[in-house]
């Protein structure tokens, strides 16, 4: 903070904080006259924190973030799918659209170029699993590409909801395993510069 001008030091904020945190810090107004800081919980008239108000804030925030669609996913059926635990946890993150893709990392930390490791286009979840030409070549020789194509114009949540309505548990499980295996190959390319031949990937994932 610049004490003389009573303003934030933008150079220091940009050097030490990600864009998301920087925006939140800039929302904090700085008093014109120096004064002692006080803690005040805005959700209680007394200014004191209470567990009740904290829980209410958390509940409302989750409902806003998850939205109505999140409740449309049949989570009981999802958690009962006969797939490895690592695939199940990956799939949950995929449905929430919070995988650490290049684009996500760039937005949160300003690190890297946000590009896909296979084609250099911006790497969003939709790109790495649906739009990337490498992924399209991987899935095209199998009937798995039909499931991928169903979700082309949908979010990850919408895609999974749609598949739950039309596919049996075995097909759903194979689809999620295929997604996980593509993500594994993506990580191998990012960290080890190594990937399988395209024609081996989906058969190996669902065998």
UniProtKB/TrEMBL annotation:
It comes from Linum trigynum. Residues 49-137 form the Reverse transcriptase zinc-binding domain. InterPro entries: RVT-Znf. This is Reverse transcriptase zinc-binding domain-containing protein.
């Amino acid at each position: 903070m610049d004490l003389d001008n009573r303003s934030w030091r933008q150079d220091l904020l940009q050097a030490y904080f990600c864009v998301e945190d920087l925006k939140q810090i800039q929302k904090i107004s700085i008093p014109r006259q120096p004064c002692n800081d006080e803690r005040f919980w805005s959700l209680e008239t007394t200014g004191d924190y209470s567990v009740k108000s904290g829980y209410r804030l958390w509940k409302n925030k989750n409902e806003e973030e998850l939205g109505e669609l999140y409740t449309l996913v049949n989570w009981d059926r999802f958690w009962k799918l006969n797939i490895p635990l690592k695939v199940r946890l990956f799939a949950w993150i995929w449905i929430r659209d919070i995988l650490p893709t290049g684009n996500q990392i760039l937005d949160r930390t300003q690190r890297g170029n946000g590009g896909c490791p296979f084609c250099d286009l911006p790497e969003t979840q939709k790109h790495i699993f649906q739009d990337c030409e490498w992924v399209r070549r991987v899935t095209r020789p199998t009937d798995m590409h039909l499931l991928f194509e169903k979700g082309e114009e949908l979010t990850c949540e919408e895609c999974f909801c749609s598949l739950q309505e039309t596919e049996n548990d075995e097909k759903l499980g194979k689809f999620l395993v295929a997604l996980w295996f593509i993500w594994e190959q993506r990580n191998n390319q990012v960290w080890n510069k190594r990937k399988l031949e395209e024609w081996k990937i989906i058969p190996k994932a669902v065998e």
